[in-house]
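Students often ask why we bother encoding 3D structure as a string. The short answer is that it lets us treat folding as translation between two languages. Here is a chain of 391 residues written in the first language.
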Amino acid sequence: MSYDVIIIGAGAAGMFCAIEAARRGRQALVLDHARKPGEKIRISGGGRCNFTNLQIAPEKFLSQNPRFALSALKRYTQWDFIARVDAAGIAWHEKTLGQLFCDGSAQQIIDMLLREMAEAGAKLRLETEVNGVKAQADGYQLDTSEGALHCKSLVVATGGKSIPKMGATGFGYRIAEQFGLAIEETRAGLVPLTFDPHFLAKTKALPGVSAEAEISSGNAMFKEGMLFTHRGLSGPSILQISSYWKEGGALALNLAPSQDIGATLHADRQSYGKLSIKNALARHLPEKLASLLVSEAGVSGNLADQSKTALAAIADTVHRWSVKPTGSEGYRTAEVTLGGVSTDALDAKTMETKSQAGLYFIGEVVDVTGWLGGYNFQWAWSSGWAAGQVC
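And here it is in the second language, the structure alphabet:
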């Protein structure tokens, strides 16, 4: 069987690329070893698919070359995808920080993609393993569990290593290496962070407790919700900072970013002086968290009895609590994979490899990783669109 284009991977980028290629009259086939297409779409956003973000900008993507993504993101924007969603009759809403979600199920996005593939004439073949790829004079030959397939253009949209229970593998990286392309070191991104037994013993009463927090690591800072877990810390602010945190580094936690705790407690002394310092702080923070922070500051007694030095110690602990993760929960729960196929090997306009004509890499397999909040889906749509115009 011979096709103009074969796309390996029936995720967001792969299906979108197939639609665009087929609309150009190309005979396109999408292959995937999974039983269903778009599984990461289905589980995203709590089942409602955070399909893009209103605030797309190159500085919200991590890469050895952060500007690489700019071409595709400018040529196929969030507004273009929103128009597509609107045309499909899918209702959506905006949450915090420009995040867009389906009003209904994420399955609506998958159904839209499948419908557009069918209308354009693109084919989908699931439960099909690709065992190997060979370059030929007129394209590529794929050794699959369904037999040999041939194509003029080959698009690799296999994703990264995140969430292996969904079928994620490093197959796309192996294809890149086969053709001599460099791979930027991969690691789990947008992932909960884990801590040592000492930290976990101190926070044993806190799993399930959440608070708004400003989390910093190096020059990166995020202000969103944070959640204590049995393994350490999670929540949007932690997932965001995990992509910037490096092993051995500490995090600076501001657990009351919207107020000055020192000034607040000083002002509270007149009206709430008889309260214990723990209960006084608990007026502004979750009670269990307040108890831990007072203990960390080494302060006890009633609010009225506290010196300026004691109140400053509490404020410093609340606003500048330094904690050092020991690691992350890894690919098992990571939403994305950092690193991947080096952007130096790819044409930013077409996603085609510079050294191997007709070979393309799109989506998460490439060394482009967005922030939490719809950025990675927009990269999938934009990079898939870019390759689909030429493959």
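Translate back mentally: The CA atoms of residues 213 and 255 lie 5 Å apart. Keep this in mind for the problem set.
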